[in-house]
Amino acid sequence: MISFECDYNNGAHPKVLQHLLETNSKQSLTYGFDEWSDSAKEKIRNVCNAPEAEIYFLSGGTQTNMTVIDGMLQSYEAVISAKTGHINIHEAGAVEFTGHKVIDLPAHDGKMSAKELSDYMNWFVNDESTEHLAQPGMVYITYPTEYGTIYSAEEISNIYKVCKEHGLHLFIDGARMGYGIMSLKSDIDLKFIASHCDVFYIGGTKVGALCGEAVVFPNKAPKHFFTTIKQHGALMAKGRLIGIQFDALFTDNLYLDISKHAIEMAEKMKQLFAKKGYKFFLDSPTNQQFVIVPNDKMIELEQQVMFTHWEPYDAKNFVCRFVTSWATTDEDLKILSEIT
Amino acid sequence: MISFECDYNNGAHPKVLQHLLETNSKQSLTYGFDEWSDSAKEKIRNVCNAPEAEIYFLSGGTQTNMTVIDGMLQSYEAVISAKTGHINIHEAGAVEFTGHKVIDLPAHDGKMSAKELSDYMNWFVNDESTEHLAQPGMVYITYPTEYGTIYSAEEISNIYKVCKEHGLHLFIDGARMGYGIMSLKSDIDLKFIASHCDVFYIGGTKVGALCGEAVVFPNKAPKHFFTTIKQHGALMAKGRLIGIQFDALFTDNLYLDISKHAIEMAEKMKQLFAKKGYKFFLDSPTNQQFVIVPNDKMIELEQQVMFTHWEPYDAKNFVCRFVTSWATTDEDLKILSEIT
Amino acid sequence: MISFECDYNNGAHPKVLQHLLETNSKQSLTYGFDEWSDSAKEKIRNVCNAPEAEIYFLSGGTQTNMTVIDGMLQSYEAVISAKTGHINIHEAGAVEFTGHKVIDLPAHDGKMSAKELSDYMNWFVNDESTEHLAQPGMVYITYPTEYGTIYSAEEISNIYKVCKEHGLHLFIDGARMGYGIMSLKSDIDLKFIASHCDVFYIGGTKVGALCGEAVVFPNKAPKHFFTTIKQHGALMAKGRLIGIQFDALFTDNLYLDISKHAIEMAEKMKQLFAKKGYKFFLDSPTNQQFVIVPNDKMIELEQQVMFTHWEPYDAKNFVCRFVTSWATTDEDLKILSEIT
Amino acid sequence: MISFECDYNNGAHPKVLQHLLETNSKQSLTYGFDEWSDSAKEKIRNVCNAPEAEIYFLSGGTQTNMTVIDGMLQSYEAVISAKTGHINIHEAGAVEFTGHKVIDLPAHDGKMSAKELSDYMNWFVNDESTEHLAQPGMVYITYPTEYGTIYSAEEISNIYKVCKEHGLHLFIDGARMGYGIMSLKSDIDLKFIASHCDVFYIGGTKVGALCGEAVVFPNKAPKHFFTTIKQHGALMAKGRLIGIQFDALFTDNLYLDISKHAIEMAEKMKQLFAKKGYKFFLDSPTNQQFVIVPNDKMIELEQQVMFTHWEPYDAKNFVCRFVTSWATTDEDLKILSEIT
Asked: A227, C74: Cβ pair inside 8 Å?
């Protein structure tokens, strides 16, 4: 059965696998000190225009979020997220498990508003009982968001400005970074990201790798961050596994090229649904599309294609998520077109 | 200067202090195994009609909340609270510090709705990604709430019913329990509380004691709860300090009598403000009153009386909290009347 | 029955209780911002010759240890303790509960050796896998120790020197500080302590108070330590309760005077046991004495006096701990003399 | 340069990589619900003779230890380990990070003694202050140990017996499980392991995989263990990555065959060193060998072969660890022979 359920239900991009194959017989240093990790880091520094960046490879998104957030925050600090942020819902309380409160602000199609962030911080610093509250230490946003939407350059700049006013770190979760940057609506690139936050990660798992996220500190990583990674169970003994994959992904622009392909497939899919009269739950310019499907049609579709049942829209319709990826083919879309 | 800032800005009720005095020269067992703690527990069991209840004395509210919640939850579980719940705001992230997420539901004048709790749980159990979410394990409500409001017997029964349907513990934070029960609007007593939740605490700090909260498990405490208390830094070496105080508070109905006094003072204070044309932010039937005060009047009042600056009401007015307690006198109200 | 079980089985010293009594009817600021807390802090600063010291009052020893240690360490750091240190055994894993490893070094009658600390740190910094280990961030010692022994001025100086060489905080747990300083063998005072560590606490619970420990940062407290206290459930709403007690204890040298009394009683008790031919488990110059008692004699004694069963000495004898305090009387010793 | 530094400095065994290659183009369910994970689990159940076993795939050793230990312990419980246990030293305090104390018992060439475990537990249950101590909830042993030694069937049986007497879980860390079982000295197999503990894991990272450890609960996993995995950041989105590798490793006895090869290489290496007159730090029957090397010879060797500098033996000699693996070749040994 074809699947539009998510962007991590395939193996690796062939070039990624190829690089694992061609390097397999070589011995290497462990824990990420291998030559391919070094090479991948250098390539990422270049594309980010961040020659001093410190880079670490972790294996998955939740792990990365909990390790980065706990690693950068003091233990009395909290992280601010949009209410729909991944760390606030779908990570089983992993951030709280490390001891930190997630303070949620309203989400607007998945996005935080710089104005509301500023209002919150102004309330916070002026409240009589400020010292009785968890101290905000970081702002967490996702690019693109859990709803496929993206921040404009201006929106990110404004959020970062508020962060700097209040001494907050800005962390951008880029589990689907490529799909955001290659969106037709995007006005930013990795250079912009690297110069407008304190830490971000470039997601590999959802963009062509078997596993792996590249955490980038454009300036400086927290002291003993390597130990923090180990302490969180996030240190790969064979660090090369992730280094090799990112080395392939950042060779010849592969990461962004395959992201672009996913966007092209998503645009075609949007047109396909629109033509048949489906409405969208919101306007997503990336690879996740949220389609309003009548309940009986949804049951029929389930027999032929996999997708995510997001949430009820009303008594008669359901919001269904259809996701493209680097691996989506025109053939997949053709079948989807025939059955929707 | 007179103060209506809170209900814990006095020393102890004279009878409480008297009991400390008259027992001072006796040696005792430590860690709560003294005779007065035993006596206090027995008196609380009686008034709660809970002969099997297990009772522990802790020193303060945040400490009690974090210890009870962490002690009853499995480490993968979260606690559900109204958005304005004390644990969700004014406890510096103490619950998250113990590793648990606080899931917030809407607050209605400080109260959780049984219907919204039920809706949330129904969504939770039916969601595709349920196992990726923090598992709700407990519901936390305050009686009275942070806004001075109280649940009716029916409302608590309904919440407890939802809890039992979904295997959730119900925990009632009674930091101001006496002031809730003695409210003119209350239709419950300690017997009702003890038979409609899994654990609750009777606040001493705000109702006549120097410190101390009595945690009551009407049926059974979690295994090794004594060790859990120690592990949370909440075990008093001289447990007698709290036991003696509760022994006094639960002799001759002192706890409820002094609570009743605070309510009488609060009712007089309400009339006093109402007569002068002040409006209230909400209708509170307990000892905390939230009065809307013009900004310039507020600045004037600050010179003569202490109160809490709660939050801005609009551009020209502020919500100010005035609190009575067991120690409030008619003289205090007379002065308040003259200056407002 | 008379009791030599511990030094916290009495009420408060009469002058402490008297101060609670005479201040009881006054209203005050909360959370430790009351006048008596201010006064007590000033008196402690004076006696410590530490005019810039930041002081916080917490309610008990385990709570103080976990809050200070967690508050001063980065989350990837561990604390080094003698194997017999209180935090390593009798605190139910409270330090680990806050996420930090306790690294144990050998104990010599309860004391850590500066040499062994230095050796450990030299091993640590030279080990190939240093970054895979919890990073030592603090050294924890007790004065006096759990075995009643005390460090000399030279020993503390040497330990502090190693700490400074390796960037470690030194924390001195003074749950029984008075009994250490007033020991006939002691060559230090509070001024010495305050200038030879980064943080220490002066125990009140075991030296005349109902509860309370005074945490002293001779130079600077960690940022937002007030919030950290709240987050650990250790903030007293009626902070005055502890402030008033320390205000009394540090008036007219009361704290040290009553400590001296306990030492005098301990010296008499030692002679009493020695005269009757008992041997000691170790040579303690403070208020805790560890007496080797034949098993059958121990069973006989239990009928007439309370003490602690420390540990088996050999098949026929047991180590029994007898403790004096500020409240021990000559009459108590007379009875003890008759029955031993 | 040839390397005997560790057993995870190679890529994957060719058959493991081959299986990744041949499955790469197929779509699958995520989070470990793919067909290859199912197949691998079934094969492991068969070889363990544990048809009801619940199996989870995690990515690395420290992660597995912290997740299993935290997942099985109540929050007031501690884990008992030999002093040299991996969780007690080389995991950066990851277990303590999850809130649990590691109680250490003496290590005898890396092994815990059933007798000493029994003695400890008998002391624990009889101690007067038992409820003030972290409650032991689990025993952790490694097979083989960090020193390459292995427990006999009788030794494991005895430890497991003590565990059952005291209600402790037994957890066997099998990061190098294959190298233990295939040791010439081993008298156990996976069936024995599966019937003599409550949980264990079969290490893949060090035995032919790129990453991955198979956690086996022979009877029942803790409730919501999937959520616990997610909460610890240990859930792989593309769970297939590990499932496919274990599917290969447990096809046609590959896992044990390649382990056997490593043992054969280790035996040859031992003879090689012995012939040249080197002494061993201890007698290891598995793939890790601890050789006593004169300091000047060590410096010479470093130029031509990689190994681990374990610890100083005495002023003139160093303990050096040489490790074989599934990937070690006769050619490697030939070179080693020439230079030692």
From this structure: no
CATH-assigned architecture of domain B15-253: 3-Layer(aba) Sandwich (3.40)
Q: Which of D7, D15, D37, D211 to mutate to test the interface with A (most CBs of A within 10 A)?
A: D211
Q: Where are the domains of chain A?
A: 2-7+258-339, 14-254
Interface contacts (B, D; CB < 8 Å): 50
C241–B210 C-beta distance less than 8 A = yes
Classify strands D135-142 and D169-174 as parallel, antiparallel or unpaired. Answer: parallel
B101 vs A78, A93, A128: nearest CB = A93
CATH number for the segment(s) A14-254? 3.40.640.10
CA atoms within 13 A on the CB side of B132: 16
ipTM comes to: 0.97
Q: What stretch of H or E contains A50?
A: none
Q: Is the peptide bond before C14 cis (omega within 30 degrees of 0)?
A: no
What pLDDT digit, counting tens, does each position of A223-274 carry?
999 999 999 999 999 999 999 999 999 999 999 999 999 999 999 999 999 9
Q: Which fold has domain D2-7+256-339?
A: Aspartate Aminotransferase, domain 1 (3.90.1150)
**Do B21 and C26 lie within an 8 Å CB cutoff?**
no
Burial of residue D147 (CB within 10 Å: 0-12, 13-18, 19+) is buried
3-class SS of residue D213: strand
- Token pair listed for B110: 């400080």
Q: Which residues in B lie closer than 8 A to residue D75 (C-beta atoms)?
A: 70-71, 75, 98-99, 228, 231
CATH code of the domain occupying A2-7+258-339? 3.90.1150.10
Tell me the per-residue pLDDT of A11-28, one tens digit each, with 9 for 90 and over: 999 999 999 999 999 999
Nearest neighbour of B90 by CB, restricted to A75, A78, A132: A132
Q: Cβ of A132 and C231 within 8 Å?
A: no
Query: In the predicted model, is pLDDT for residue D128 greater than 90?
Result: no
The alpha-carbon gap from D98 to the nearest alpha carbon of chain C, in Å, equals 6
**E strand map for chain A:** 2-3, 54-58, 77-82, 102-105, 135-142, 169-174, 199-203, 213-217, 279-280, 288-294, 305-306, 308-312, 317-323
What fold is seen in the domain C2-7+255-339? Aspartate Aminotransferase, domain 1 (3.90.1150)
Q: What percent of chain C has pLDDT over 90?
A: 99
Render pLDDT for B208-217 as a digit per residue (tens, 0 to 9): 999 999 999 9
Chains in contact with A, where contact means 3 or more Cβ–Cβ distances below 8 Å, are B, C, D
List the single residue in A11, A205, A211 with the smallest CB-CB distance to D24.
A11
Q: Which 3 state secondary structure label does DSSP give D20?
A: helix
Distance from CA of C237 to the nearest CA of A (A): 11
> Which chains have at least 3 CB atom pairs separated by less than 8 Å from chain B?
A, C, D
Whether residue A76 and residue C224 make contact (CB cut-off 8 A), yes or no, is yes
Nearest chain C residue to B328 by CA distance is C27
pLDDT higher than threshold 90 for residue C128? no
Give me the residue from B70, B132, B226 closest to D75, CB to CB: B70
**Cβ count near A249 (within 10 Å):** 31
List the chains bordering chain C where 3 or more Cβ pairs fall under 8 Å.
A, B, D
Which stretches of chain A sit within 8 Å of chain C by CB? Answer: 70-71, 74-76, 99, 131-135, 223-224, 226-228, 230-231, 235
